[in-house]
Write a structure and sequence with these properties.
nucleotide binding; single chain; binds NADPH dihydro-nicotinamide-adenine-dinucleotide phosphate; alpha/beta; globular
Length: 434
């Protein structure tokens, strides 16, 4: 806090992890050797740079971009790029810190990183987005590489943006080595990568329920967001027999009590991904309720999957969910629940999965994309999905191993933080101080 007084999101993420780690390290002091904790809260490298580009009207625009190379103890820095006006050093440092633990949990050899820009892709033409991505790569290309740092997508960065950045990476480096994941299928992308984060979030919820002898069949589900993660969480939850009754965006929540079935979801995906339209327009055109300015959390349901952004579910929202009988929360977004909301869920004893465990399917499948690129082969959809499913089960098991309490209940926050930490800490200690 003394070093980073103006970085609330970063301090929030560190506090949450340290709350789990402190009692564990007191019992296992070897994990404090070589100042592992002190080193873990300091990114290995932070790169900040200017991105200047020319818009369609001929005006010069200036944005700020970053890459946080947080920790490479277990593999190359790995984590997405975010394009959103809210992007700043605090948000990217929190994401890179979380990513380090998450990537460790995947069982794959990937370190932690994150990056992005305050560029807002909303309302920009394809040509503007391309020129921005190319201008950004003019600097970023010298800092990344298949064995150094492998970025991917995140909020505001989907297949289109990854494609444009990959093109310029090849041009600048004269090398076709795979430097981004989340690529298109025609140039090295993996099947199931677009679906992986949302699917994984639901697989994790399925594991938590199964651990208590329950299942998704017949459950009602609230989902926030309507982007990449939310869409595929909706698809998988529906396939597994649940009924998803909400999606949302930054303008409000669409509430469809009869459920968002495959047909409705296909229409929403076309609207969001191809037309880049708004949920409110979809609701108006199809006679669905749209609650402007509202998040979904006041609506009664069995499960909640927050899949939009950080701090989108606060203490009051948690209390409203609990009062309505929520049994399980599986985070698709990164840190969507505030510290107070997490505390409320843990206190109530419901199943609560932190994003670093439940949304790790995305980066895990990025790891599988790297493996396929390295062996120059592509696995089938079934093979990748089976590997993703197995990884989510492994992560769940690891959380159970480190998070089971004296009364037999599982604290998934402690479980994920400790399991993620142990591997990174062992690797850091074995490699000495560097
Ligand atoms: P997208 O850009 O595809 O979608 C983001 C969704 O969240 C949109 O519906 C957007 O609404 C909404 N949203 C974004 N910012 C805000 C805000 N400040 N307030 C309210 N709504 C907001 O991003 P993703 O689906 O890829 O990412 C969603 C979350 O999942 C993020 O936390 C991300 O870090 C996390 N995540 C993503 C992974 C991935 O593989 N993509 C992997 C692991 C985690 P609108 O359209 O109105 O902006």
């Amino acid at each position: 806090a003394r070093r980073d007084p103006n970085q609330p999101e970063f301090l929030q993420a560190v506090k949450e992890v340290m709350t789990s780690l402190w009692p564990f390290i007191e019992k296992n002091p070897k994990y404090a050797s070589y100042a592992v904790l002190e080193r873990l809260v300091e990114p290995e490298r932070v790169i900040q740079f200017r991105v200047s580009w020319v818009d369609d009207a001929g005006n010069t625009q200036v944005n700020r971009a970053f890459r946080i190379q947080h920790n490479n103890a277990i593999g190359p820095y790995k984590g997405g790029m975010r394009f959103h006006p809210s992007v700043n050093l605090s948000i990217l440092k929190f994401l890179a810190f979380e990513q380090t633990f998450k990537n460790s949990l995947t069982t794959l050899p990937m370190g932690g990183g994150k990056g992005g820009s305050d560029f807002d892709p909303k309302g920009k033409s394809d040509a503007e987005v391309m020129r921005f991505c190319q201008a950004l790569m003019g600097e970023l290309y010298r800092h990344i590489g298949p064995n150094t740092d492998v970025p991917a997508g995140d909020i505001g960065v989907g297949a289109r943006e990854v494609g444009f950045m990959t093109g310029y990476m090849k041009k600048y480096s004269n090398d076709t080595g795979s430097v981004f994941t989340g690529k298109g299928i025609t140039f090295g992308g993996s099947l199931v990568r677009p679906e992986a984060t949302g699917y994984g979030t639901v697989y994790f919820a399925q594991e938590m329920l199964a651990h208590k002898g329950d299942s998704l069949t017949g459950k009602t589900v609230l989902i926030s967001g309507s982007g990449n993660v939310a869409q595929y969480a909706c698809e998988k939850a529906t396939q597994l027999g649940a009924k998803v009754i909400t999606l949302s965006d930054s303008e409000g929540t669409i509430h469809i009590p009869e459920g968002i079935d495959a047909t409705k979801l296909a229409a929403i995906m076309e609207l969001k991904n191809v037309q880049r339209g708004r949920l409110s327009a979809f609701a108006a055109a199809n006679g669905h309720a749209f609650e402007a300015g509202q998040r979904p959390w006041h609506i009664k349901a069995d499960l909640a999957l927050p899949c939009a952004t950080q701090n989108e579910l606060n203490e009051d929202d948690a209390k409203a969910l609990l009062a309505n009988g929520i049994i399980c929360v599986s985070e698709g977004a990164n840190m969507p629940s505030t510290l107070e909301a997490v505390e409320a869920f843990l206190h109530a004893g419901i199943m609560f999965a932190p994003g670093k465990a439940s949304n790790a399917g995305g980066v895990a499948t990025s790891g599988l994309e790297m493996s396929q690129n390295a062996i120059r082969l592509s696995w089938t959809r079934e093979e990748v999905d089976a590997k993703l499913h197995a990884i989510m089960k492994d992560i769940h098991q690891n959380c159970v191993k480190y998070g089971t309490q004296a009364d037999g209940s599982v604290n998934y926050v402690d479980g994920a933080n400790i399991a993620g930490f142990v591997k990174v800490a062992e690797a850091m200690i074995a490699q000495g101080v560097y």
